Amino acid sequence: DSALIDRAFRSTKSLAKDTTIDGKALNYEYVYMKRENTELYKGAVIRIVSDHTQDKEFVRRSLWNSVLIFLVTITIVIVLIYKKSKVITNPIKKLLNNVNRITAGNLNERADVEGNNEIARLSEKFNVMVSRLEDHYKNLEQKVKDRTAEISQKAAEIEEKNKNIEDSIRYAKRIQNAILPPDDYLQDTFQSFFILYKPKDIVSGDFYWAHKSGDERMFAVVDCTGHGVPGAFMSIVGNDQLNYAVNVKGANNPGDIMNYLNEGVRHALRQRSGESSVRDGMDMTLISINYKTMKLNYAGAYNPVYVFRNQELIELAVDRFAVGGFIDEELHQFENRVFDLQEGDMIYIFSDGYVDQFGGPRGKKLKPKRFRAILESVHQSKPIDQKEMLDQSLLDWMGDDIEQVDDVLLVGFKL
Questions:
Q1: For the chain, which domains are there?
Q2: pLDDT tens-digit profile of 385-397?
């Protein structure tokens, strides 16, 4: 204490000190008492001792009571908030569960309506919406059933009609096959030959025709406009006109026969340029082989004649216009041409189906150059073997993914 008293006396200021003695909280305060200085008395310092033990205990207890009250209050508030949130969230959860069940297809679900608040009103509106949705669903389901039954009936009718159409087309195929020259007639007429005939559909727009007149052996490969049923109708017209030309008109060389055919097709179809934009007609090649004189008479509309001799290809050109067309157009005349044959020659006549077939690695047309290369690779084989090799070459070119695009007709004669 003497040190603090001395400091207070020297500084002329009051000083304080807190300390604990025997468990008591004591406060020592040293107050400097200023007086007028004399020789005997220069001033005084008073020490005041205060016991704050009870005050601190009171403050401590008050603090703990406040903390306890705060914690209890917070707990009560949390419990009240939790209960209130349950009152709000439980109906929402139930409503959400109902929505999930409804979206899963159960339209019998309804939300529970509890209380008189916004959630309750929302649940009521939800139930109304679900009821309307259920009604619409039932109506739609009935319409679907009715429409399904109607579609099934229509499908059955279409299937029956398709069957009738297919039966009719197959019967038409029998008729078309009947107009083609019989195999035994061809065997008696020509020495060594093959016919590769691959219609795209059940019936074909390509057909072949044969006729024997004295020493002349005639054969035609005809490619009518279109394929399938339209082409098949055209093939019947073409076959009738060819028979009319030789049997009624007495035409005896390919040029004359094709001129009669040209005129007959134009009048049979009765087309005029102002009435239609479709030019129905035929591309064809007609040859006449005389095995005694070794002469080849031929005429053609676009499609040439190929002759392989001594491993070299000879292309016999034909006229560059088709059979048929419009009645009011100028009637072109087909030229009859003659070519001298030699023993060992291989003659090919064909439609454009083989050449125009898509395939290969790039899905492009086979084209004449590749076609001639294929013929060159097989022309020395027997005709029956050539047919198989040419058919396989076409299948290889098409591959597994590309369908046949046109009727294919390729005929070869070996001398």
A1: 2-51 (no CATH), 181-414 (3.60.40.10)
A2: 999 999 999 999 9
